[in-house]
């Protein structure tokens, strides 16, 4: 049984660790002995037969994602970094894995160089040689400097494979990563990673407008604009349902009587299937669920000067006519109203050929082939 050591770090939302959970659950079901090592805040996960280790947690200090802090807001000092690195390396040596997977690194998560560079060095020194793999999303931060692109390419020389969890028929990795030509010979598309759970057959959410902000912490402007549009009756005689962990004080939205406001639900895909329209951000997991289950959708991607990933993903889908899009830093009642009108008058997502969402199974197959 091949052993897999999978390092993941979520910083702002929980999308990274949710995707990693689907991957390790699938790998375990395919016969791998998998340890998922998480450095973010503890999250309840279904790991199937995979094992789990929680490192001392860190998070992004704010939405800029430039600095890391402990959960209580204290910045990381050298002693904390050294201790976390020692714990990670001791765990790695005790596991003696056949495969090391780093999630996003070296194409992201560079704030974790303090522990990932020693981990990579330890992996390269192991004998017999193990397989070193980068697990990366369909889109990376296009705003990275040329120096940062060069660094990623140089670091990737120590890797055997980059598994790109996307579908090149929708979004090619070269659109966001300028160093594509230097890595393409050791890169493979797997398809998107989707939770294989199927929606219920019920009618919950039938004909509704679903407004959601996933598990992230930056959905306030989306909820505010959507609440203003909802009060204006743009989609008449329709129930609106607001879902999100950042809805701490729903009274500030001033919603119409009867509008539903609640936390994220386990039957979210059922709501998507039955809804007339989905309004959401454009994180990886949300977009995959939208492409798999939604009828029509408006994407409101989180965007800053530095963070371009959600915007690039949303624009690529909007250019193909699958969704309507309004940038999160431009969202207002007027811009959101116009996007809703475009989505409702355009074709259904279901009228397009389905995208490849077999990424977890394809990842297991590719690893088995490489190890063989």
Describe this structure in words.
The model has no long low-confidence stretch (mean pLDDT 90). Helices cover 34% and strands 16% of the residues. It is α/β, with parallel strands linked by helices and 372 residues long. The strands form three sheets. A seven-stranded parallel beta sheet has the order 3-2-1-6-7-8-9, sandwiched between helices. It has a six-stranded parallel beta sheet with strand order 12-11-10-13-14-15, sandwiched between helices. It has a two-stranded antiparallel ribbon with strand order 4-5. It has two domains: 3-193 and 357-371, Rossmann fold (3-Layer(aba) Sandwich); 209-351, Glycogen Phosphorylase B (Rossmann fold), CATH 3.40.50. It has helices at 15-29, 78-95, 113-125, 146-156, 180-183, 220-231, 268-274, 284-293, 309-319, 333-345, 359-371; strands at residues 3-8, 33-38, 51-54, 59-60, 68-69, 99-103, 131-137, 161-165, 187-189, 209-212, 240-243, 260-262, 277-280, 297-299, 324-325.
């Amino acid at each position: 049984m091949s052993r897999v050591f999978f390092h993941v770090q979520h910083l702002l939302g929980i999308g990274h660790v949710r995707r990693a959970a689907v991957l390790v659950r699938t790998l375990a079901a395919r016969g791998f002995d998998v340890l998922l090592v998480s450095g973010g805040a503890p999250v309840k996960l279904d790991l199937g037969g995979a094992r789990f280790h929680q490192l001392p947690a860190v998070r992004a200090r704010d939405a800029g994602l430039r600095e890391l802090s402990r959960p209580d807001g204290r910045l990381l000092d050298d002693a904390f970094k050294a201790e976390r690195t020692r714990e990670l390396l001791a765990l790695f040596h005790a596991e003696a894995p056949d495969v090391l997977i780093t999630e996003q690194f070296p194409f992201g998560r560079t704030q974790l160089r303090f522990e990932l560079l020693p981990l990579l060095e330890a992996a390269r020194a192991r004998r017999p040689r193990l397989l070193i793999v980068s697990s990366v999303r369909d889109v990376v931060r296009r705003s990275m400097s040329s120096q940062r692109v060069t660094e990623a390419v140089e670091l990737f020389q120590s890797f055997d494979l980059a598994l790109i969890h996307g579908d090149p028929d929708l979004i090619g990795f070269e659109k966001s990563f300028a160093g594509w030509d230097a890595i393409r010979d050791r890169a493979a598309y797997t398809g998107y990673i989707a939770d294989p759970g199927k929606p219920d057959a019920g009618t919950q959410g039938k004909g509704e407008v679903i407004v959601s902000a996933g598990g992230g912490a930056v959905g306030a402007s989306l909820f505010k604009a959507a609440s203003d549009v909802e009060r204006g009756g743009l989609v008449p005689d329709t129930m609106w349902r607001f879902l999100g962990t950042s809805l701490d004080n729903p009274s500030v939205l001033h919603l119409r009587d009867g509008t539903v406001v609640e936390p994220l639900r386990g039957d979210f895909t059922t709501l998507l299937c039955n809804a007339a329209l989905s309004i959401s951000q454009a994180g990886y997991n949300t977009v995959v669920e939208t492409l798999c289950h939604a009828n029509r959708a408006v994407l409101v991607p989180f965007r800053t000067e530095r963070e371009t990933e959600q915007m690039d993903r949303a624009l690529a889908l909007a250019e193909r006519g699958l969704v309507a899009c309004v940038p999160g830093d431009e969202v207002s009642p007027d811009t959101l109203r116009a996007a809703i009108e475009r989505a409702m008058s355009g074709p259904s997502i279901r009228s397009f050929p389905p995208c490849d969402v077999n990424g977890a199974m394809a990842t297991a197959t590719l690893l088995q082939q490489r190890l063989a």
